[in-house]
Amino acid sequence: MLLLDDRKRKILKAIVDDYINTAEPVGSRSVARRHEIGLSSATIRNEMADLEEMGLLEQPHTSAGRVPSDKGYRVYVDQLMTKRQLTADEIDCIEDSLRSRISEIEQLLKQASAVISEITKYTSLAITPQMNRSIIKAIKLILVEDDKVLIVIFTNAGIAKNSLVKIGAGVSLDSLVVIANYLSDRLTGITLEMVNIESLRFDAQRIMTRDRHIIDPIINGVEDCINQIASAEVFLDGTANIFNFPEFQDMMRAKKFLSILNAKDILASMMFNSPQGEEIKVRIGIENEVDELKDFSLITATYSIDCEIIGSIGVIGPRRMHYPKVIASLNHIRKVINRELSNLLGDDVEGQ
Amino acid sequence: MLLLDDRKRKILKAIVDDYINTAEPVGSRSVARRHEIGLSSATIRNEMADLEEMGLLEQPHTSAGRVPSDKGYRVYVDQLMTKRQLTADEIDCIEDSLRSRISEIEQLLKQASAVISEITKYTSLAITPQMNRSIIKAIKLILVEDDKVLIVIFTNAGIAKNSLVKIGAGVSLDSLVVIANYLSDRLTGITLEMVNIESLRFDAQRIMTRDRHIIDPIINGVEDCINQIASAEVFLDGTANIFNFPEFQDMMRAKKFLSILNAKDILASMMFNSPQGEEIKVRIGIENEVDELKDFSLITATYSIDCEIIGSIGVIGPRRMHYPKVIASLNHIRKVINRELSNLLGDDVEGQ
DNA sequence: GTTAGCACTCAACTTAGTTGAGTGCTAAAT
DNA sequence: ATTTAGCACTCAACTAAGTTGAGTGCTAAC
Description:
Two copies of one chain form a homodimer.
Chain A: H1 6-22, H2 28-34, H3 41-53, E1 57-58, E2 67-68, H4 70-80, H5 88-98, H6 105-120, E3 123-127, E4 136-144, E5 148-155, E6 160-166, H7 173-187, H8 197-207, H9 215-230, E7 234-237, H10 251-262, H11 264-272, E8 280-284, E9 296-305, E10 308-318, H12 323-345
Antiparallel strand pairs in A: 1-2, 3-7, 3-10, 4-5, 5-6, 8-9, 9-10
Helix pairs in contact in A: 1-3, 1-4, 2-3, 5-6, 5-12, 6-12, 8-9
The first copy, chain A, binds a DNA duplex through helix 2 and helix 3.
């Protein structure tokens, strides 16, 4: 951890704060003027030269002020910034849009994404829970219209998904009962990621003596249900917000940004690699694994059920992001999501 | 219908064609040069002055060439443009991404949207079917975990949606059978839009003598299922494509554009007001009802099941859109969607 | 160690001048 | 009666030169 003396800390903080607010390179004189440091611009100039040498500041060109480097932002985030609290209004806003009356997890995260971008004015992300580890509680086959079967799988996380498949007509009810029991035996109590579709299909061939042609469609339906439950969806909001920032007046950059947002799989993978234990993760510029994001900062927060991290929410914006506010917002919203999820899935499921 | 003599038609067509390709105002000399009209630039100049007087062309400023007006584009689309056929490659591309192996209607339309923007290079839209008119075929209640009921509704359009609700523990199976039969009686055979949730709830109170506390959650679950089936979803693709056009280098315009794309409800309403009978509708600039779209052209095409229009796909781009290509693409894709939908829902539902 | 002063740098802005594609009009040619 | 060549005019877009001002680094005095 990089240690700075008090004066350098004050000056670096002042520069980052100013730059976050103005997007203009910060000069020594304006630091002396706008902040009560009690030093002349000349002294500050010397300190700034030191900070630049240490790699914390950069100069766009000789006669401009300084701009924080990625490393500078990192020190700011880790050591210097003054933590912010949300205002009562902001908290109300979050509660209003997320509290109760939301019946589906997808809805909850969509709303969460909307409220994040509303409060932070950046582009927000929310990914639906990773349900690979959830346990199959029940699987039902329902005959509808004598040649179609509705397959329903239901997990301990309170999710049920269905798939409708056509089987040939004239299948005996007995055969359906046989395969239904088989599936129930094989699948109940195990997690989604443990399901091996091909061995399931193979073994079904062995136990079924009649009506074997129904195996393939039904197993496919089971696979479909499992995929539906396991697949993660990414919600975005406030994508147009990026245009509010002067550094993205450049069309090329804006286009690149939108292209990334359209690559949902890349977003999803970014969101997932938060190590356990870390509730909020800040990636500044070059720290992003994804190359196209090295002009951006990404802040993510995890949410969980029963202390297991299952998904995350986040914000993408310029490196010059208002870190204190975004971190405070995400931290609050992740707690609300945790609370709502446990309401939704736990004992209090009510009404819907 | 505006009638033009042959020479004016040729000149207007040449100007619109050139402007669509270059985005530069077209001058009399370049019309004379690039198209075989056999007239000098001076004559063409006179004709252009006439066309301007008729409101078909506009001049950005005195010493620039001419640009088509909305009315000019309209004449071009209705009378002048040479219809295009898709190339074999394009048709293959469409077939590859839409044919078979798609089990869900949502997937089909998502793919359709993707392929539209891939082929046209504009921003594409696809709205999921309006299912208000579909008929409820069956409704099932499944008891899971002795205090939760899974409600499944299944329609003639092959859609099944479920909702999981919690009822108090210790409900007798008899009560569940009573309400299941009641719901089945009341709902089977009617369309979604005919369902009156409140009268359903009210009458349930009358027929149920015991376990009345389960009525509210269950009716809410029914409502939830119906809403899930009836709600239309809008898929977008190629949103970043707008930046490829020089007329959208302007940030304000680009931002406005993205804002509209985020207002899914506005998009949905635009997509829906295609009168029956019209397969392809072209709205040019000012012809758009939505104010924010008056700098754009919107082309929509309907798709249907059993000859009833249930949804649409479309393209948004600059007024200077490549109309022949977009119209040909949408027309082809709508036919493929019709075909796939009838495969999906009709007799050929197979496996998945 | 701190600061005032000064020469220097350089992006951003202003101004004036140039270019060139395009027009409208008129008079000659067909 | 059309069509066309010729010419004067317009105006956005580009270029070049000059100005401004915020900022720097260095040095010498405090």
